[in-house]
Amino acid sequence: MAAYRREAGCIAVITLTNPPVNTLSSVLRESFYDTFRRANADAEVKAIVICGADGKFCGGADIKEFAGTFSGPSLVALIDDVEQSKKPVVAAIEGIALGGGLELALGCHYRIAHTKAQVGFPEVTLGLLPAAGGSQRLPRLITLTSALELITTGKRISAPEALKLGIVDKVTDKNALDMAIDFAGDIIGMPLEPRRLSLRTTPCPPDVESFLDEALASIRKQSRGAIAPLACLQAVRASVYSTFDEGLKKEQELFKMLLTSGQARALQYSFFAQRATKKWSMPSGATWKNTSSRPLRKAAVIGLGTMGRGITVALIKAGIPVIAVEMGLKQLEAGKTVIMSMLKKEFKKKQLTKAYREMASFTLDLEKLQEVDLVVEAVFENMSLKKQIFQQLSSLCSADAFLCTNTSTLDIDEIASVTSRPHLVVGMHFFAPAHVMKLLEVVYGPRTSPTAVATAMQLAQQMEKVGVVVGNCNGFVGNRMYKLYTEQAYFLLEEGAVPEQVDQVLEDYGFPMGIFKVSDLSGLDIQWKIRQEEGLTGPKQIPGGSFRHRAGCRYSPLLDILCERGCLGQKTGQGWYLYDKPGGRVPSFNPWLHKFLEEYREQHGIQKHYVGQDEILERCLYPLINMGFQILTERIAASPEDIDMINVFGYSWPRHWGGPMFYASMVGLPRVLNKLNYYHKIHPDIPTLEPSSLLKKLVANGSPPIGTWGAFIKEHNSKL
User: Fold this and answer.
1) From the centroid of its chain, how far is CA 73?
2) Which residues have C-beta within 8 Å of that of residue 94, sequence separation ≥ 6?
3) Quick count: other Cβ atoms within 10 Å of Cβ 71?
4) Which of 436, 569, 574, 719 has its CA 20 to 30 A from that of 267?
5) Lowest mean pLDDT among 64-68, 136-140, 189-193, 455-459
6) What per-residue string of b and e applies to 450-487 under the rule 16 or more CB within 10 Å gives b?
7) What does the alpha-carbon distance between residue 428 and residue 649 come to, in Å, rounded to a whole number?
8) Record's InterPro entries (predicted)?
9) Residue 690 in 3-state DSSP?
């Protein structure tokens, strides 16, 4: 609702009210339309101030309305009414002015903001663009460079930044509404024509055409296949070459095109799916609703390698003091140096004054962990080492302390079995770099208590991460699926593809880096060690396999061969690509590898065939999707949304494709099923190509929308 009251006799204050962030729903727009017109017609009102209830100006449009038909007055018309008012209109911005909220503020003649307020156009992150004049008014107000950056990235900026750019007129650390009311009183009777942004022309650099061409090339490179940023550029371009009304028309055309696109549906699906991960559940019936978490006052991290360092920083950034533990003095000192340097950068970046040095302590003595509430073990992936540590922790830590492992693949239940408190053991699978990456897989074993899960999920929220609850199995959700992605990429090399070709197709799809570039960056030896631990290669190899088969299934030893030759990726200067030196970052053509692949195929009698773009995408993505259906069948993940958010936030799946399960629903489940059947027929020794029974069931039931899969999953599982 929108209501107005009079202040200082002649100032009408209109308050937008639609909790929690005053989104411009059809009801609010209708109410505002009537309220503003009444205030405008009131002869005793000389100026109008617009504000938002509960310290938030306006969070923009109601996303839920995008899926249906729009009703009520359009936001374009409302903002036009505001701008054309003969009485000065001032926006009092507190909290946020985002999307349609910022467009409304730009329609006002003046803008006053609280210093802690944020403004921005996040529409592009939903696959859309500002569609109530934002792409036309903002470039007329500030520089083209700044307008393009804000509109094409969805970046939020602070009120002081907005003041520097010229978006707001004044910033205050006091009450923004009070200041706006006083300001409105001072400007009564002043000319409003210069303040109407629709009447201005867009200020342009001298060679605007070259500028826009360069902007297009840059945005195309950064957007990696997303269409919304490019549409945003087209809309801003219209502000340069068209009248305001013509630009509005172009903006609307582009918005309608985007609204019906698959990418917009995917991005809006992701928006809601991310929020749905907080509503976790376990097969036992425990849920986010019926389980309470415990407060954490102090934590410990064991192992100060790459992961342990990042986890320590993530915890301290969340305000939790940490005792960091290492087994050797040299490793402890090295870890301490890096962690303190990372903390210094993080706190300087956020301009925080907290004495972070006092929040981190370093020790070799496990006895110091007696008073912590939670321990995160982050040593390397070795079951016997982890069990040894957990056995010690079980006897040293307080009886109610949570014992967490950062394992990425190992059995949580086996680790918990050596403790006296398996109900307090939970997996917390961070992703590198742990203080940056948003995903946290929270893994429960058969004996993990709901309280342990709730506490880990609360901690994820405290660290500003996307926590997703998953069950216990080899690789959990993310790595179990990713394994098939890498496996198929190796098979494609055996059959005739080259790393550059595979990577290019995946990057064109939208991944920031292709699979082989990622492998070189991470280090080939990481996956090699996992293979050795699983008995697939090396001294622990399980007897009975052949060179290219393990347990009757096809196996690619390409990674093993490269590791045995010391080609570990960037760290050694050679892997799937060649680098100018060990530690080099720029990949280049590796002539040795290409020659080696030819010799490998000839030696093993592999018939080379042309591998096209479609086969690369289908072979890399569809088996991964198929495993997602298997994971749903096994109830390792509670929903397709959970699987998708794990892939988006942990494995850089392009957000504009929604995630693997949503992507499957977009391209069509029958297509995925048919292609899996096709490839499984050609490669019967790759069992992961055999379509999941759940996928078959969904196709047999007419490929229902992803939002209804839950009912089919329950029915399917009840019959297994």
Assistant:
1) 34
2) 51, 52, 55, 56, 57, 113, 114, 117, 176, 177
3) 11
4) 436
5) 64-68
6) bbbbbbbbbbbebbebbbbbbbbeebbbbbbbbbbbbb
7) 15
8) 3-OHacyl-CoA_DH_NAD-bd, 3HC_DH_C, 6-PGluconate_DH-like_C_sf, ClpP/crotonase-like_dom_sf, Enoyl-CoA_hyd/isom_CS, Enoyl-CoA_hydra/iso, NAD(P)-bd_dom_sf
9) coil
Catalytic residue annotation:
103, 123
- Number of C-beta neighbours around residue 651 at 10 A: 20
DSSP state of 656: G
User: CA torsion angle for 513, 517, 522, 523 (degrees, to 10)?
Assistant: 170
Residue with tokens 């391209």: 667
- pLDDT score for 399: 95
Q: What are φ and ψ of residue 550, in 5° steps?
A: -135, 125
Contacts of 183 (CB under 8 A, 6+ apart): 90, 110, 112, 170
Q: Check whether 417 has a pLDDT greater than 80.
A: yes
C-alpha 325/C-alpha 302 separation (Å) is 5
Do residues 108 and 90 lie in contact, with contact meaning Cβ atoms separated by under 8 Å? yes
| Position 678, amino acid | Y
Give the confidence band of 196 by pLDDT, cuts at 50, 70, 90. Answer: very high
Amino acid 127: pLDDT: 96
Quote the DSSP letter at residue 377.
E
Alpha carbons 568 and 523: distance in angstroms, whole number: 5
Between CA 29 and CA 369 the distance in angstroms is 57
Q: Which residue has the tokens 């009183």?
A: 185
Q: Helix count (H) and strand count (E) of the chain?
A: 28, 19
Instruction: Please tell me the distance from the alpha carbon of residue 441 to that of residue 417, in angstroms, as a whole number.
Output: 21
Q: Token pair for residue 284?
A: 């036992």
CB 324 within 8 A of CB 335: yes
Q: What is the mean pLDDT of the chain?
A: 94
CA of residue 404 relative to chain centroid, distance: 24
Helical segments of 350-466, H only: 383-396, 412-416, 450-462
CB 430 within 8 A of CB 406: yes
Own/partner long-range contacts of 184-189 (Cβ < 8 Å, ≥24 apart):
184/11, 184/47, 184/48, 184/49, 184/88, 184/90, 184/110, 185/8, 185/10, 185/11, 185/47, 187/47, 187/88, 187/90, 187/109, 187/110, 188/10, 188/46, 188/47, 188/88, 189/46
Cα separations in angstroms, 449 against 298, 403, 424, 506 = 20, 12, 6, 40
C-alpha neighbours within 13 Å on the C-beta side of residue 460: 27
Q: Which parts of 534-612 fold into alpha helices (H)?
A: 558-564, 591-603
Interval 388-400: pLDDT, tens: 999 999 999 999 9
Give yes or no for a contact between 378 and 305, defined as CB atoms under 8 angstroms apart. yes
| Contact predicate 378/308, CB 8 Å | yes
pLDDT tens for 328-337 read 999 999 999 9
- Name the residue with tokens 């991005």: 267
pLDDT computed for residue 355 by the predictor: 66
